[in-house]
Amino acid sequence: MARKKLIAANWKMYKTPAEAKAFVDAFLPLVAGHTRDEIALFPSPVLLPTVIAAAKDSNVAVGCQNIHFAEEGAYTGETSVGQLIAVGGTHTLIGHSERRQYFAETDEIVNKKLHTALKHGIVPIVCVGEVLAEREAGKTESVLKTQVTGAFANITAEAAAPIVIAYEPVWAIGTGKTATPEMAVEAHKIIRAEVTKLLGADVAAKMRILYGGSVKPDNATALCGQEEIDGALVGGASLKPDSFTAIVKY
């Protein structure tokens, strides 16, 4: 069966509310009527109310770059899933490589966040990927298997339907380096095989696996045109309406 592709924008720690609104106001007319793919924006938490209001009644979803696994509590600086839902967010990134690298997120934490997102009906995009040293040491497959297995601990096939995975080779994020389509497809096949082992062939066949890592207008077609690649998680090239539109319309 054909999986509907998802093109997602991770704005990281960029944009003021005014800049975010200006982006959405410029972007929505450019993608109006675009139904081939799903589109989602992931702004900084402080921008969520602005972006959600600006994108209301459009074909663009809005999510958070991170959630905490606890439903509430004394976790200064964190965003709860209830807060995300209250402002109208529908998606969340989980385990982005920068969260793993700079904030010590482990596979166990990713798993706890995934359980929380699924419990509350939030669409989770679970990020996995190897660093350059791991790829050069021939450990890509083992790293991906470990991350997927850890993230999916105690997740049932029945609960897994909303999950999206994003394969992001860490060495290709913000570096200008990009995995070739062949390298990306190989990694996606490893991930899908692991999901098959954990949750069954039917779940794996339906689960979307995005590619993330220096996706730009000039390589989006080569990457997203692959049958095994179900869309893109876009960083820097998603910060301008015209470049992100070009990727959406690859």
TL;DR of this structure?
With 250 residues, the protein is an alpha/beta fold. The chain has 11 helices and 8 strands.
Provide an overview of this structure.
This protein is an alpha/beta fold and 250 residues long. It has a single domain, classed as Aldolase class I (TIM Barrel, Alpha-Beta Barrel), CATH 3.20.20. Helices cover 42% and strands 15% of the residues. It is built from eleven helices and eight strands. The chain has helices spanning 17-31, 48-54, 81-86, 97-103, 107-119, 132-136, 140-151, 181-199, 201-206, 217-224, 241-248, and strands spanning 6-10, 38-42, 60-64, 91-94, 123-128, 164-167, 208-212, 231-234. It has an eight-stranded parallel barrel with strand order 1-2-3-4-5-6-7-8, surrounded by six helices. Helix 1 (17-31) links the parallel strand 1 and strand 2. The longest helix is centred in the last third of the chain and has 19 residues, at 181-199. It is globular and about 45 Å long. The two termini are 21 Å apart. The model has no long low-confidence stretch (mean pLDDT 95). It holds the Pfam family TIM. The active site is at residues 96, 168.
